[in-house]
Amino acid sequence: MKTDIDAYYPSNGRVILHVDMNAFYCSVHEAEEPEKYRGKPTAVAGSIELRKGIIVTCSYAARQIGISTGMHVNRALKLCPDLIIIKPDFHLYRKYSSAFMKIAYSYTPLMQATSIDECYLDITGSRQFGTPQQIAEEIQRRIEEELALPCSVGIAPNKLLAKMASDMKKPRGISVLRIRDVPRILWDRPCGELFGIGGKTAEKLRKLGIYTIGQLAKTEEEILIRAFGVVGAWMKQAANGIDHSPVLEEREQNKSIGHTTTLPTDIQAREDVNRVLLNISDQVARRLRRQELVAGGVQITIRTPDMKTITRSHTLDTPTENGADIYEEARRLYVEHWSWDKPVRLLGITLQHLTPKSEAAIQLDLFEYEKHPKKESLTQTMDMLRNKFGENAVVTAGMLGDDPSVLLRNHKVRGTSLQMDFVNKEGLDLP
């Protein structure tokens, strides 16, 4: 027998919620120290002492006076001298993230976390908790009461519209967006406001004479496919509010990534130890990047000739995927906890506190911020070459030893000659 509750749940469709935490990092600090931060303009950023950091996020009080994500700290302070700059605390953010997702998960096992501060919930089978509106209100209320955090919730028949709906009212909003509402609510908006369409794609659409989501929805699919490939078909469907992607249940994430090397002979010389740590750092960093993760901690393992094993670890201030960062931390741990006059039989590095890269705000100072795209491009190029031609296609000088003539040799890989050139933090020279 059909109940009043059943009327809110389609017989052949889905009901999806998108829970989006509002100004998450700043809100977490406010929840921890309300007497210090409540109602004040705050921003989370790094390199506070140098005033060169980039704003990761800011409170709504700060947004009202023109502060925005991506703004340089010094510019933000000129706009608002009273702006409170807070250093990131990723362990605290993960703690609150886990807590709010635990609340959300109690209403359905079909939960998909897409970043540290948002998740999708398929509540099609959650009638026992009430109507979709009631469930959204209860989740929002519990997160506010139990964690002192604000959130917005979107209610829709699919993930795309649920995400769009959660952005409609911030902070602390609850919005419903049905497919029949799409023409009235979305079609007059610029294409760049459709979730999944970035600035470059929006610009390309404008060159085709397509400025609004409504125009995109009415464009012939063949035209879009010719311009964008298979993505064109998705764009037309999305503009019409159609999205069939499922809410993927949360899978247990790797808790650590590690690698150890048992050495053919005992070593203790500084250059030998450094070379081994550099090689291991490179290997674990590549595995990290393949899984699109960043590491929040580094642990080293040392085994002595008499088979005694010690481990030492340290939590990083900022998560990283960079082999150089991992190497520097591993080398620092070795120097701090071991002695150069003591031989070692085995060395290992384990990356801990892993987080999806999409969830981590990797804070850079202004100098690093400007160089970051070049470094990331270099890393991607090196990974691509190694994936295609093998591990030895590109190596750093430190991995090869002190003989500079080694750097000039030609390395034959599947009939292709790749000059083994010096790779440093500044760039990669390829013939």
TrEMBL record:
Record's cofactor remark = Binds 2 magnesium ions per subunit.
Task: Report the subcellular localization.
Answer: Cytoplasm
Q: What is its EC number?
A: 2.7.7.7
Which keywords has UniProt assigned to this entry?
A: Cytoplasm, DNA damage, DNA repair, DNA replication, DNA-binding, DNA-directed DNA polymerase, Magnesium, Metal-binding, Mutator protein, Nucleotidyltransferase, Transferase
Name the residues that bind Mg(2+).
D20, D117
Q: What class of enzyme is it?
A: transferase
* Alphabetized InterPro entries for the sequence: DNA/RNA_pol_sf, DNA_pol_Y-fam_lit_finger_sf, DNA_pol_Y-fam_little_finger, DNA_polymerase-Y, DNApol_IV, PolY_HhH_motif, Rev_trsase/Diguanyl_cyclase, UmuC
Entry's CDD domains?
PolY_Pol_IV_kappa
GO molecular function list: DNA-directed DNA polymerase activity
- The UmuC domain, residue ranges: 16-198
Cofactor entry: Mg(2+)
Q: Quick one: where is this thing mainly located? A: cytoplasm
Which residues does the Swiss-Prot or TrEMBL record annotate as the active site? E118
Reaction(s) catalysed (UniProt annotation): DNA(n) + a 2'-deoxyribonucleoside 5'-triphosphate = DNA(n+1) + diphosphate
Site positions per UniProt: Substrate discrimination: Y25
User: What NCBIfam families would the database entry show?
Assistant: PRK01810.1 (NF002492), PRK02406.1 (NF002677), PRK03103.1 (NF002848)
Give the function comment from the record: Poorly processive, error-prone DNA polymerase involved in untargeted mutagenesis. Copies undamaged DNA at stalled replication forks, which arise in vivo from mismatched or misaligned primer ends. These misaligned primers can be extended by PolIV. Exhibits no 3'-5' exonuclease (proofreading) activity. May be involved in translesional synthesis, in conjunction with the beta clamp from PolIII.
Q: Which family does it belong to?
A: Belongs to the DNA polymerase type-Y family.
* Quaternary assembly: Monomer.
Query: Under which name does UniProt file this protein?
Result: DNA polymerase IV
